[in-house]
Amino acid sequence: MTEIPPPLNPPDRLLCGPGPSNVSPAVLAAMQRPLLGHMDPDLADILLEVVALLRGVYRARTGIVLALQATGTSGMETGLAHLLEPGDTAIVGVNGYFGRRIVEIAGRLGAKIVAIESDWGYAVPNDRLLDCVDAHPDARLVAVVHAETSTGVEHPLAELGAALRGRDVLLMADCVTSLGGVELDVDGWGIDYAYSCTQKCLGAPPGMAPVAVSDRALERIAARRAPVPYSFDLGLLEAYWATRPAAYHHTAPVLHIYALHEALREVAAEGLAPRWSRHGEAAAALRDGLAARGLELLAEPEHQLAPLTAVRVPDGVDARRVQTRLRREHGIEIGGGLGPSAPAMWRIGLMGYNAQATVAARVLEALDAVL
Amino acid sequence: MTEIPPPLNPPDRLLCGPGPSNVSPAVLAAMQRPLLGHMDPDLADILLEVVALLRGVYRARTGIVLALQATGTSGMETGLAHLLEPGDTAIVGVNGYFGRRIVEIAGRLGAKIVAIESDWGYAVPNDRLLDCVDAHPDARLVAVVHAETSTGVEHPLAELGAALRGRDVLLMADCVTSLGGVELDVDGWGIDYAYSCTQKCLGAPPGMAPVAVSDRALERIAARRAPVPYSFDLGLLEAYWATRPAAYHHTAPVLHIYALHEALREVAAEGLAPRWSRHGEAAAALRDGLAARGLELLAEPEHQLAPLTAVRVPDGVDARRVQTRLRREHGIEIGGGLGPSAPAMWRIGLMGYNAQATVAARVLEALDAVL
Q1: Which of B11, B73, B339 lies closest to A250 in CB terms?
Q2: Which pTM value belongs to this model?
Q3: For chain A, how far is it from start to end, CA to CA, in angstroms?
Q4: Which A residues 213-232 touch B at CB under 8 Å?
Q5: pLDDT at position B2, please?
Q6: In A, which residues are within 8 Å of B20 by CB distance?
Q7: Domain A25-268, CATH among 3.40.50.300, 3.40.640.10, 1.10.3720.10, 1.10.10.10
Q8: Which residues neighbour A271 within 8 Å (Cβ) at sequence distance 6 or greater?
């Protein structure tokens, strides 16, 4: 006999860590709507609306845009598994945990990796990436982390895309903590593969990984010799998400699609530029408050990401104990450093629904009470 | 500017196709509970409860048991990608769409496949599988579909497991439409890798893929030369799901975990044997009603699966038009044949919350009105 636990009764949390973030009541309510089957024509219409809305947020008019039923990490892996074949050379910008993860996954796929590293808190200079492209004319892919969630550093992606224009190498960007929170322009910047998640700046619960794939990347994929993973085969996924009549591939996570649809409606209603500004203003309020308290940030100021701010832990302070007290005494989650090699830090996220100066103020007040 | 669609307003559906199935009000309510972060100690406790409950449903006391944030197909792919290396021989029982999918995925992974085929509606005889094991002593894996969702055929899995006991070859079973609906005993039957989904007999919404991995399979995985996919690396997933303190690997789909927790509580409260009986009784009521109407089934009677019944379309009847009218005029979804090579059929699922004789009666009444 299995012992039966009581029904769940999780406490309220203000989620100001690296994500997930709290979702709006309307997004939560959307998940209570009647469940449709994955091949229902009414769901097929909803999928097309989600694709159109996602195209707006990614600013990707062509190519494939859809949401994987998967983690952001699967979004990363799907891109690498489509754009690289064993023996291909990939140039990877590494300045934190997620750049290292790209290296790890590309390595498992049999790629030759040239990692261009910067210290935690610093952007990977585009000049060094471009020199590397010159030095490795056979490189098939340049991969960078647009928003390094482990450090709060934003990569100057527009400039990198412009500098790579006309080159044969593809550009992949980790947009997990940037999509919907900071400026991003897949078409305009020439990004060939972008991936993100639903639970950060888009304001939906964790559960899906929106991706955008350029026409140029699709040509590369069509010319592959090695097969791609079946359950993330972008061609088969497109035949379900966007070709009509839809071809069966998998059973879609219907309630998460409802949630994403509502979250994307909110993004579209707010407008991209106002939404980016809101994230920027909330982050500025947080930074001002932290500075007033003498707390230092990890990221170099010119590349500070808005949705996530990494704060250095003052000498003599037990970082984890502060997090525990914030959670237990104030119902607030903030993150710590990610991985054993990370410097001591707290990571404060103001994303999606929580990207508000009033939320920043709540976090600062709680920090005052605990520190 | 992206055009903003109105809020979703999907119609009510009685979901009696191949899944998803309707979920109980308590499962839906669980998804409205406060969102926790993926590294919250309170969520870590919930994950352990889900694992314990899943062990009970799979009857898997040892090895790894957890739920992937993924489709059932990713559950299939994860197993094949862990248990096979390029060049390995796999024996696959194929009697429908999902057996073919195993062949497709194993082929993409570079395995040599020996497919033992039966016609749609017939089980793959265990004798033929065992003869094949004798003929291929180098085979690393035997894979069968316990419940072939495309035909409604149940594989005699207990007998296969017993016959393979003591052999060096591993046994993998597709339990997508069996877990929680028909007898299954991972430990007792010697299954090394089982995968399923949440949206069928377990009674949760679509979104996760519970898997069970035997200790013997874990030894095989530990001895691999080729790497496994990072985002479904079972060792890394176990370090998040069941090792404490939990090691970060991905952001868990928290609301789906709440739903799965509640659905598994319902399974445990009902008891496995009564739940299997309920699925059997609902299916018997459906079969009796179909027979009284002169409708024939696809599956051979001795291997008819309870949760899903495939019905042959009578001559001269437009199968798709019947499905459309059931959906539009009666709010009932049933499935059609899966894939271009399937015989003309309807697939009627009575799974989880919908495995009730009263639901069977509603489907039969609607069929009377439409046929």
Answers
A1: B73
A2: 0.97
A3: 47
A4: 227-232
A5: 67
A6: 35, 37-38, 251, 254
A7: 3.40.640.10
A8: none
